[in-house]
Design goal:
This protein has a six-stranded parallel sheet with strand order 6-9-10-11-12-13. The protein starts with 13 loop residues before the first helix and ends with a strand. α4 links the parallel β1 and β2. The longest helix is centred in the middle third of the chain and has 15 residues. The chain is α/β, with parallel strands linked by helices. It has 13 helices and 13 strands. The model has no long low-confidence stretch (mean pLDDT 94).
Amino acid sequence: IRPNSGIVKTPPPLGLMYIAAFIKKMAASTDIKIVDARRRRLSVSRVGEIIGQFRPDVVGITGLHFESKEAHALARTVKSFNRVSSVVLGGPYASSDYKKALEDVAVDYCVIGEGEETFYELIKCITERRPPAGIQGVAYRNKGGLCYQPRSDYIRDLDSLPHPAWDMIPLEEYFDSKRLSIGNPLQVEVRAVPVFTSRGCPFGCYYCHDIFGKATRFRSPENVLDELQYLVSEYNVKEIEIIDDVFNLDRNRAKKICDLIIEKGLKLKINFGNGLRADIMDEELVDKLKKAGTYRIIYGIESGSPRMQDIIGKKLNLARTKEVIKITANKGISVGGFFMMGFTGETKEEILQTIEFAKHSKLHTAS
């Protein structure tokens, strides 16, 4: 379940779709339902009715940290409609604050970080009525205390994962309006979907999530293209938003993905509404992205102050970033910048440096 928290942005719930596809791969007879309460604007009571009809053994609830209220309301509703169901919280909230989440007796387990293998192993423990001792990334109550086995590794071979379960959601419902991305108000096509091509980011920005860890793992260009071709042929998708943490970390791989899109003639519109890292971009990659169909790129910049860049762990080369923004804009690609103000210890003068950086660059939009 993805809770209805009133967020306007309602792309398909990729995290739930990846987990559902993985469980189906590992245990084909499992009966799974994805309920996107956010997209369908379902009340907690209506979700409860669905739970009462479906009578699941395990209910997984995802959520951002500020959706914790809605997540807990759903957990209590699950228990009120079916007390034997085990409730598992996952996503950014559970990953960042599992101790707080488990104060709610309606929550039985938290899955921290990457969910496919961990959730599947947890389901096996639940159905076999044994504690999930030793499963990395699971937190739970035991004899009045908390048990948690920290995660030491992530899924290395992303090509081994099945593509998200696009067939398990009513995808047409997500095409009725331009609501894919907060970072891209210029979305061109209604038939647009988000796509992950990698997981993890090696940079040390202290404000960022850590769902996928610091070791970046990549899908092969061929695996990415296979999913894109499927989306085009089966659902007539016209636009993709690549939402990797840092798509351009491996520039040669990024260029190969562009080459395959061009070679296969997919004619897709492409946007990067989640942000690329500007100071590792090169002009050849910008050219290939443009040729492959990219019309919009966001760069995560955060601060125009070199001192704050060091303090927040971003350590972006601001001079190179300004040059890359210029190169990108001159290629006819719409360029946006993400910024933050109000870091601990930041001065008024440094906030003004950030504003001046945005004003005097060739950015088309700044958020």
